[in-house]
Design goal:
85% helix; mainly alpha; Cytochrome-c oxidase subunit VIIa; membrane; transmembrane; 0% strand; cytochrome-c oxidase activity; mitochondrion
Length: 61
């Protein structure tokens, strides 16, 4: 007793799969950019500003 082949499964759901993957990818990218990357960049910038202020105050003394 042969098993019936699955015909047209890829074609039927292709655009749904592409749309969902694009939406999830873009959402994940924005979540990383605004939730992780910009916060770490601000922390790094704060460190360098603090370091530069310490160096400037050490030079002026």
């Amino acid at each position: 007793m042969p098993i019936a082949p699955i015909v047209g499964k890829l074609r039927k759901r292709f655009w749904l799969d592409v749309g969902c993957s694009m939406a999830l990818g873009i959402t994940g990218g924005y979540a990383y950019w605004y939730g992780v990357h910009l916060k770490s960049l601000a922390r790094q910038e704060d460190f360098y500003v603090k370091l530069e202020r310490e160096r400037a105050s050490a030079r002026s003394e």
